[in-house]
Amino acid sequence: MPSHVQLSDDVLFHNLSEEAVLLDMETEKYFGFNSIGARFWELILKDNDTRKAIDTLLTEYEVDEATLTKDIFDFLTELKSLKLLTF
Fold it and tell me: H-helix or E-strand containing 10?
């Protein structure tokens, strides 16, 4: 699990109430995600600390740590493969 992540230079984050999107300005492609993904990005943009974000999510949602950690890692890996972020 990367300790810090960063949006790629040409990517914008926009929160849409219960959902959010990342928009790649260069390719004009976007990636939408649900309320948990949106909350994760709010936390990352605030502190840029994945462990702290996961710890916060564990207090806010009924999920076990192993499942959440795997889901976040898979989420970040997918965003990296789409060149929407770096770590």
Answer: none
Q: Is residue 12 part of a domain?
A: yes
Helix (H) or strand (E) holding 20: strand 19-24
Q: Which of 62, 61, 40 is CA-nearest to residue 51?
A: 40
Domain count, the chain: 1
> Residue 11's domain spans which residues?
6-82
Query: Coil, helix or strand for 59?
Result: helix
Whether pTM > 0.70 for this model: the answer is: yes
Query: Which residue type is seen at 56?
Result: T
pLDDT, one tens digit per residue, over 60-81 is 999 999 999 999 999 999 999 9
Residue 40, SS3?
helix
Can you tell me the distance from the alpha carbon of 27 to that of 4, in angstroms, rounded to the nearest whole number? 24
